[in-house]
């Protein structure tokens, strides 16, 4: 039975949280989707004049979503914004650009110094997850005053498209948790590099909220039923946002839940909290200043304190361990400890059409993104000074376009050393669960992607759903591939697999009491 379905980004950082959730949450399965969940939009926060795009970089959104506060909250926010702007103009950054006001700003820094010093010495006191605009109302449909609203047909098509891509057409659980992601840190000129790539370097919570708002609408579900996707009345789509640096999930629209379902959600949240703490403990082993033997709670506190430490150059390691991309059903990888190394893209070949149109979508968009991240890390690791950007410590931000190293005038194009120092520079190993003939036909329709395969910028493998075995792309086509035997060590949990070392860990088989019960039931 499946009661909870957690849909997260394909990001390699989400591989570990999926493992821990499957180990800790009852009757749960996890699914990997592009982190904008098919919702390309312009987003405008309350009182903001400008919109920001929350979608892949190559997409230009045509729809707008606005967040609206209650009247009393909006008035309070206006006063707070006015105070911030007044302080900024008289004592803050804006003031420092004027000679006279710059003197006042310098004096103002003395007033702020005690707080800054306290945060520098005791950063753990200032850990606070983002929670802005959690109580807002979304304006997104054609009946609002927004001219770029989503019509009912748009909403139905959007939800249907994403569900078909994921292969989630039946067997809906009582809870479908749609969780975007972002990352919190201070004093970080590379902040957007830690956010969701599928959201164009933004946080994905707004995309999750909009998708769930559509999927929970009665008219949308009626339209989906007419197209062959029947969502049970008891199923609730719940939006959230995972902070990958804090390992904290904040939930949106909890107040709209019925009381009995709210208690049920609270129980799931408690189990998720255990999974998040275990995930933070797993990440902690990569930081040299956190002892391997530290208890989980202490490790979590140390990991979260990094995000608010002005002197911390490694709030998290981002995609530093990426090595593979797996496009297929979760049954291929569930129960395997894969050390945060693969991008996991959910795809069910049994629900695809004969022309493999769904596979074509995944190979046309998510696969090049994963390959691009892999190559970005590959070149930045191989030549960190010329193809990367060296250590971030002496960097100066130039025109919000890039960074230069100290007084050096050249813009540096690549990644900083603090995110590549533990990276293993290999080309992306890509495994697709589909027949080799279907993959080859898709590649003929995607010449740019085929070039990356033919020229060996990625290593492409096929896993036949019909049981024909594995195939590897060599030269201009697939050849049968027989891998050498590889022993899988059995461990009791993810932490048992990696808690003893800071190095990469070979794949292990996680054999828990929960997995044994599942095996017995099947």
Question: What's the layout of helices and strands?
Answer:
Elements: E1 4-9, H1 14-24, E2 28-33, E3 41-44, E4 52-54, E5 64-68, H2 71-90, H3 99-121, E6 137-139, H4 152-166, E7 175-182, H5 205-215, H6 218-226, E8 236-243, E9 248-251, H7 259-284, H8 296-306, E10 324-328, E11 336-337, E12 342-346, H9 357-364, H10 366-382, E13 395-398, E14 402-405, H11 417-420, E15 428-433, H12 436-445, H13 447-454, E16 458-463, E17 470-474, E18 477-481, E19 489-491, H14 494-498, E20 508-510, H15 513-521
Parallel strand pairs: 1-2, 1-7, 3-5, 7-8, 10-12, 10-15, 15-16, 19-20
Antiparallel strand pairs: 3-4, 5-6, 8-9, 11-20, 13-14, 16-17, 17-18
Helix pairs in contact: 1-7, 4-6, 7-8, 9-12
Task: Describe the fold and architecture.
- This protein is an alpha/beta fold and 522 residues long.
- 36% of the residues lie in helices and 18% in strands.
- It is built from 15 helices and 20 strands.
- The strands form five sheets. A six-stranded mixed β-sheet has the order 12-10-15-16-17-18.
- Strand 1, helix 1 and strand 2 (28-33) form a beta-alpha-beta unit.
- The protein is globular.
Number of strands: 20
User: What is the overall number of helices?
Assistant: 15
Any low-confidence stretches, pLDDT <50, length ≥5? none
Query: What value does the Rg take, in angstroms?
Result: 24 Å
Give the oligomer, counting copies of the same chain as homo and different chains as hetero: single chain
Cα end-to-end separation: 10 Å
Helix vs. strand class: alpha/beta
Largest sheet properties: 6 strands, mixed
């Amino acid at each position: 039975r499946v009661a909870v379905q957690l849909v997260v980004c394909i990001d390699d950082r989400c591989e570990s949280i999926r493992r821990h959730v499957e180990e800790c949450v009852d009757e749960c399965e996890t699914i990997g989707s592009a982190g904008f969940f098919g919702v390309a939009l312009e987003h405008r926060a309350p009182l903001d004049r400008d919109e920001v795009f929350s979608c892949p970089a190559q997409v230009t959104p045509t729809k707008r979503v606005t967040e609206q506060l209650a009247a009393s909250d909006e008035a309070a926010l206006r006063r707070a914004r006015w105070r911030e702007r007044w302080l900024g103009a008289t004592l803050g950054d804006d003031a420092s650009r004027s000679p006279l006001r710059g003197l006042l700003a310098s004096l103002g820094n003395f007033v702020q110094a005690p707080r800054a010093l306290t945060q520098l010495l005791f950063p753990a006191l200032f850990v606070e997850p983002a929670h802005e605009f959690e109580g807002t109302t979304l304006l997104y449909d054609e009946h609002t005053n927004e001219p770029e609203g989503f019509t009912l047909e748009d909403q139905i098509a959007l939800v249907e498209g994403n569900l078909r891509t994921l292969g989630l057409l039946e067997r809906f659980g009582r809870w479908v948790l749609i969780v975007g992601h972002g990352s919190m840190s201070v004093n970080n000129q590379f902040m957007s590099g830690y956010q969701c790539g599928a959201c164009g370097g933004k946080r994905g919570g707004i995309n999750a909220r909009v998708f769930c708002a559509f999927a929970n609408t009665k008219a949308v579900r009626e339209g989906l039923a007419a197209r062959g996707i029947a969502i049970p009345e008891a199923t609730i789509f719940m939006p959230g946002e995972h902070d990958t640096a804090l390992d904290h999930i904040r939930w949106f629209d909890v107040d709209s839940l019925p009381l009995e379902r709210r208690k049920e959600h609270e129980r799931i949240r408690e189990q998720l909290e255990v999974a998040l703490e275990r995930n933070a403990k797993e990440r902690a082993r990569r930081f040299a200043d956190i002892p391997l033997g530290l208890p989980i709670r202490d490790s979590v506190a140390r990991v979260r304190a990094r995000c608010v430490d002005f002197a911390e150059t490694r709030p998290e390691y981002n995609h530093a361990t990426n090595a593979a991309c797996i496009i297929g059903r979760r049954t291929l990888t569930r129960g395997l400890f894969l050390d945060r190394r693969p991008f996991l893209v959910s795809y069910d070949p049994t629900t695809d059409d004969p022309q493999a149109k769904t596979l074509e979508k995944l190979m046309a968009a998510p696969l090049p993104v994963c390959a691009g991240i892999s190559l970005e890390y590959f070149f930045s690791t191989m030549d960190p000074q010329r193809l990367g950007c060296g250590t971030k410590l002496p960097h100066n931000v130039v025109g919000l376009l890039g960074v230069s190293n100290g007084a050096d005038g050249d813009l540096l194009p690549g990644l900083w050393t603090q995110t590549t120092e533990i990276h293993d520079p290999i080309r992306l190993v890509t495994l697709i669960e589909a027949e080799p003939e279907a993959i080859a036909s898709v590649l003929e329709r995607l010449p740019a992607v085929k070039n990356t395969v033919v020229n060996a910028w990625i290593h492409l493998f096929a896993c036949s759903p019909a049981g024909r075995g594995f195939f590897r792309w060599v030269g201009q086509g697939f050849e049968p591939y027989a891998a050498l035997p590889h022993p899988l060590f059995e461990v009791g949990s993810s932490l048992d697999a990696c808690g003893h070392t800071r190095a990469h860990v070979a794949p292990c088989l996680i054999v828990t009491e929960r997995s044994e019960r599942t095996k017995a039931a099947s």
